[in-house]
Amino acid sequence: MPVSLSITRTTGIEREFKEYLPEKFKDLEISSEMINKVNKAREALCFRDLSKRISALPALYYDDFYEHYLQHGDISLTLKSMADKCIF
Question: What is the CA radius of gyration of the chain?
Fold first, then answer.
């Protein structure tokens, strides 16, 4: 059952995160993916522009979200800060 809980929570974050993006980015597809890095895998929100077939857009890592949330204790501030990091 933990897998379904993870999917539900991630889907909610994807939807909520879109609310903080500038209007021109709201049509991007956002998905949660495991990205293999040196020595470990990291879970991230990944962005794709399906109209341009571009997938080389930024990935925002969940552990960065979590660290920001621990420092500030405000999920809205955390999502806004992470959205501000999106430079397309």
Answer: 13
How does pLDDT run across 4-62, given as a tens digit for each residue? 333 334 567 778 888 888 887 778 888 888 888 888 888 888 888 877 776 666 788 88
Name the token pair of 48. 């794709």
Q: How many CB atoms lie within 10 A of CB 79?
A: 20
Six-digit token string for 33:
């993916």
Q: Whose structure tokens read 């470990």? A: 40
Whole-number Å distance between alpha carbons of 73 and 66: 10
What is the signed CA dihedral for 19, 31, 1, 42, rounded to 10 degrees?
-110
State the Cα–Cα distance between residues 46 and 39, nearest whole angstrom.
20
Helices 2-18 and 75-84 pack at an angle, to 10 degrees, of 70
| Cα–Cα distance for residue pair 27/36, rounded to 1 Å | 26
